[in-house]
Amino acid sequence: NKGKYEHYMQKEIHEQPESLTTTMRGRLIRGGSCKAKTVLLGGLKDHLKTIRRSRRIVFIGCGTSYNAALAARPILEELSGIPVTMEIASDLLDRQGPIYREDTAVLVSQSGETADTLNALEYALENGALCVGVASTKAYTSQIVVMAMLALAIGGDLISSQERREAVIDGLFDLPSKLKEVLKLDQEMKDLAKLLIAEQSLLVFGRGYNYATALEGALKVKEVALMHSEGILAGEMKHGPLALVDETLPIFVIATRDACFSKQQSVIQQLHARKGRLIVMCTKGDAASVCVGGSCRVIEVPQAEDCLQPVINIVPLQLLAYHLTVLRGHNVDQPRNLAKSVTTQ
Ligand code: M6R
User: Fold this and answer.
1) Measured distance CA(219)–CA(200) in Å, rounded
2) What's the CA angle centered on 216, arms 311 and 321, to 5 degrees?
3) What is the complex's ipTM, to 2 decimals?
4) Which parts of the sequence belong to the SIS domain (predicted)?
């Protein structure tokens, strides 16, 4: 039932504030008699000690689920102090990559049916790793939230990171209202889609917490709008992609406030110097400081706790992909050649 919406994709984008609230309900605790801020992940409780002793944590998934894990990796590494490596399920299987008994494998899948991910689960189990699954509700944003809660649970109660953990918990509680705010960019993203309707390609630059946002935004544009799009790690810009920059190719740069902000400012300046056609996503109030020395279109988004900013930043890109698809006359709810879940290898 699409309710008041024209398409299912549009409905899912706009329902994210509620789906996040549902994802956190009963799992994230703030207040109560002892005013504690904590996370309760029932299924994981008995394994936390073993996970904390792991030599590494391996995130395994495909497509959007892989991107969600990539977005959550920094906060998991920060709070747990355990190295986290990333595996695309099919690639792990192709390489028969090393997995050890001392590893914890976290399998990420929205459907739970993806053949490559299930085969990778079997492979990790055969190799003796402790395997846990991230059961999320439907969306990318919920998956990130689940994994942020996982990071809080694994991070435990170290005094040294207590302040940060509490800030992340507060940040999680604030997300639904910030999501509502960012969804107000709908018309602005439709206007942008009108400008980009006839383009062949769109590059998306991100780094740090928002490298995953670049990959996931580009995946959405490719998948539904049937437009070539590439998510690029901004730190790699000078190692190849810079050659593509000219006055015509649209480039979307994610430059919201975090520890990488000044590096992104310098990326923007270098793109300006090559007359790049820029669309910059920045934190509210930052338009003047991201667009120095050139012209660009600016999308301002609300600020969240840095590690949760990807949950906010993906929304304008989802809206852009949606409007591009509709304007280009494609079927937004049934992307060409794609199955709902990929149950074959
Ligand atoms: O159900 P899963 O999360 O295991 O699916 C993995 C990918 O096939 C999936 O995320 C795919 O990339 C998305 N449908 C893209 O929107």
Assistant:
1) 15
2) 95
3) 0.98
4) 47-178, 192-335
Distance of CA 300 to the CA centre of its chain: 18
The closest alpha carbon to 315, from 251, 248, 256, 268, belongs to: 256
Output the residue whose Cα is nearest ligand 1's atom 15.
64
Question: At 38, is the secondary structure helix, strand, or coil?
Answer: strand
pLDDT tens digits, one per residue of 213-228 = 999 999 999 999 999 9
SS3 299: strand
Give me ligand 1 centre to Cα 64, in Å: 5
Residue 233 alpha carbon to ligand 1 centre in Å: 21
CA-nearest residue, atom 10 of ligand 1 = 64
Going by alpha carbons, the residue nearest to atom 12 of ligand 1 is 63
State the average pLDDT over residues 148-154: 95
Cα 272 to averaged position of ligand 1 atoms, centre (Å): 35
**Angle (CA) 248 318 13, round 5°:** 160
Residue type, 106: V
Separation of alpha carbons 212 and 136, rounded Å: 18
Identify any residues that bridge with 59 across adjacent strands, giving them in sequence order.
86, 106
Residues with CB under 6 A from ligand 1: 62-65, 109-111, 114, 117, 223, 341-342
Helix (H) or strand (E) holding 231: strand 228-233
Closest atom of ligand 1 to CA, residue 338: 14
H helix intervals, the chain: 8-14, 16-24, 48-52, 63-80, 89-95, 115-126, 140-155, 162-182, 186-196, 211-225, 261-273, 287-290, 309-327
Ligand 1 centroid–CA 117 distance in Å is 10
Q: Could you give the CA distance from residue 331 to residue 337 in angstroms, rounded to a whole number?
A: 11
Q: What is the mean predicted confidence (pLDDT) over 251-272? A: 96
Ligand 1 centre and the CA of 119: distance in Å?
15
Q: Please give the helix or strand (H or E) that residue 205 lies within, else none.
A: strand 201-206
Confidence of residue 35 (pLDDT cuts 50, 70, 90): low
Quote the ligand 1 centre to 342 CA distance (angstroms): 8
User: Within its chain, how far is the Cα of 224 from the centroid?
Assistant: 17
